[in-house]
Structures are given as structure tokens and as C-alpha cells.
Amino acid sequence: MYKTGTLTQNIMTASHLFYDSTEHDVLTNFESVDKENESYVALCNIAILCSRASFIEDSKVPIEKRQTTGDASESAILKIMEFLEGEVEEKRKRYPKVNVKDQ
């Protein structure tokens, strides 16, 4: 995943995914992503389930403007996964973390 950002504002944006030896610009050409691709599915599952960032604002706010908990990198990953896959929190509820220390 590529992230671009503004360090002085602690804001980052994920813009590309890299899987199957191919770079995918998901911000400008997300229609070209094959959401049935096994590698894409695995990458998204990892990004969704392993991130500690979460939204703290109402879902009526556009994704890119929602406030989040977590650092800038993890927040960028959360936002791109919400943009591409949607329902990140629901997916996390289906696969809760177990035996995790210091969450």
C-alpha cells in the first residue's frame, strides 16, 4: 500500500494497492480492481483486521473527512478499506481479535 501525506498535519492518504506483482491506483481507477481476486481479498482482510484505527464520527460524514483514532498510517489504511470494501467495523465484529494484549 502506498501512502501519501502531510507530516505537519499528521494526515496520510492511502492511494495504491500492490498485489500479484502489480500496482493498482485505487483512488483514480478503483473500477479496474478485481474484487474477486484472491490476493486482493487477502490484502483487504489483513488491512481491515490488523489495523487498530477506527472511526469516531458518524458515517454521514464523507470517508476522507471522518475523524479516526489511531496513527496517521493506520487511519489512512482504515479509510481506503472503507472506501473500497465498506462496512469495516461490521467485518471486524465478525472476526474479533482474541488473546490480544495491550490493545
Automatic annotation (TrEMBL):
InterPro entries: ATPase_P-typ_cyto_dom_N (IPR023299), Cation_transp_ATPase_P-type (IPR050510). One of its GO terms (molecular function) is P-type sodium:potassium-exchanging transporter activity. Keywords: Cell membrane, Membrane. It is found in: Cell membrane. One of its GO terms (cellular component) is plasma membrane. Pfam families: Cation_ATPase. It is a multi-pass membrane protein. One of its GO terms (biological process) is proton transmembrane transport. PANTHER family: SODIUM/POTASSIUM-TRANSPORTING ATPASE SUBUNIT ALPHA, SODIUM_POTASSIUM-TRANSPORTING ATPASE SUBUNIT ALPHA. This is Uncharacterized protein. It comes from Rhamnusium bicolor. The lineage of its organism: Eukaryota, Metazoa, Ecdysozoa, Arthropoda, Hexapoda.
